[in-house]
Amino acid sequence: MSRITLSNIDRSFGRVDVLHDINLDIVDGEFVVFVGPSGCGKSTLLRLIAGLDRPTAGTIAIDGKDVTRVAAADRGLAMVFQSYALYPHMSVRQNLAFGLENIAMPKAEIDARIAEAARMLEIAPYLDRRPGQLSGGQKQRVAIGRAVVRNPTAFLLDEPLSNLDAELRISTRAELAALHKRLATTMIYVTHDQVEAMTLADRIVVLRAGRIEQVGRPLELYNTPANLFVAGFIGAPRMNLIPVTIRSATRTRVTADGPDGASFTVSANGAALHAGDKATLGIRPHNIGRAVKSGKGVSAQITLVEALGPETVVHAEVGDGNRLVAVMDGQDRLASGDRLRLHFDADRLHLFDAAGLRVPRAQAGAR
């Protein structure tokens, strides 16, 4: 069992408050990803769970036992660092065995664990090499293997793929997902890369300035972001956010005026909105296309075209300098400076109020 519960966690360094009232329950076997911009507190939170640091306030429990003041070595967790943290003078085999030898584990058991980890991570051919003779991806596998041989109650991974090139990150990401499925052990993973979060996580914890903004499954965060920050952070390319003014609002629909005289109607519960209120309209780049009917849609001027082969990414300006990105299928013959009219999929519009909070969808049957 490896259920981890964080209750009312604060962490301050002098007068600097880094974490604020963090409450989170991570269930046994779950793959949870902490994601957010640099400096949001995600690595600090991981260090608190690991026992490498202590909270200023609050408690940390593992399987119901308070471990807030328990030493890192006694928590039964294994941490994988961004820097690999391998001993350069030792072989891969020695690196894997070192922690187990320190607790006087029998040699036969150590050999068996190393053999299983080497098979699982496909590092058997490198067991007699030293870290200096390995590629970045091979070093990362060894660092993960050193955690695996300990049979920990949970794995803590602090941006483990950030030193790898783009292609290797993709393959190693797939290996991590497969490893979690085989081990069925709790994993907590820190990254600033929301693509890693979307592809690996059972649940994502989005952090900003030391606070949790939203917790949920990847597609839940993608489809129903709680606020403007999550809307802009989750998704690649990021969601387009356009300032609008409410024209009318009911419990089932909201009509808003946007740039260049465009009008948008959103299926949303606008009971708390009033005519004249400022708001923000959100639309994913993949939900924008060319307007079919003449005179319809939003007038835009293209500033950049990225031809990727299977799709074309169009950067444009609408209205008074509002920038947006549209992703269109296929190879579109567009160029910087061209003008075109864009259609927004009305069923994929998001609305955020003046405080930046999501306006909920209208409930079925509401009047």
**Helix proportion range:** 10-25%
Radius of gyration, in Å, reads 25 Å
- What is the percentage of strand-forming residues? 25-35%
Order of helices and strands: EEEHEEEHHHEHEHEEHHEEEEEEEEEE
Return the average pLDDT rounded to an integer. Answer: 92
Distance between the termini: 48 Å
What composes the largest sheet?
6 strands, mixed
The domain tally reads 2
Q: Determine the CATH topology of the largest domain.
A: Rossmann fold
In short:
23% of the residues lie in helices and 34% in strands.
Strand-helix topology:
Layout: E1 4-13, E2 16-26, E3 31-35, H1 42-50, E4 57-62, E5 65-66, E6 77-80, H2 92-102, H3 107-121, H4 136-148, E7 154-158, H5 166-183, E8 186-191, H6 194-200, E9 203-208, E10 211-216, H7 218-223, H8 228-233, E11 240-249, E12 254-257, E13 263-266, E14 278-283, E15 288-290, E16 298-307, E17 311-318, E18 322-329, E19 339-344, E20 350-352
Parallel strand pairs: 3-8, 3-9, 6-7, 7-8
Antiparallel strand pairs: 1-2, 1-4, 4-5, 9-10, 11-12, 11-14, 12-13, 14-20, 15-19, 16-17, 16-19, 17-18
Helix pairs in contact: 2-3, 2-4, 3-4
Your description of this structure?
- This protein has 8 helices and 20 strands.
- The longest helix is centred in the middle third of the chain and has 18 residues.
- The model has no long low-confidence stretch (mean pLDDT about 90).
- The protein is α+β, with helices and mostly antiparallel strands.
- The strands form 4 sheets. The protein has a 6-stranded mixed sheet, with helices on both faces. The protein has a 5-stranded antiparallel sheet with strand order 13-12-11-14-20.
- It folds into 2 domains: about 230 residues, 3-Layer(aba) Sandwich (Rossmann fold), CATH 3.40.50; about 120 residues, Beta Barrel (OB fold (Dihydrolipoamide Acetyltransferase, E2P)), CATH 2.40.50.140.
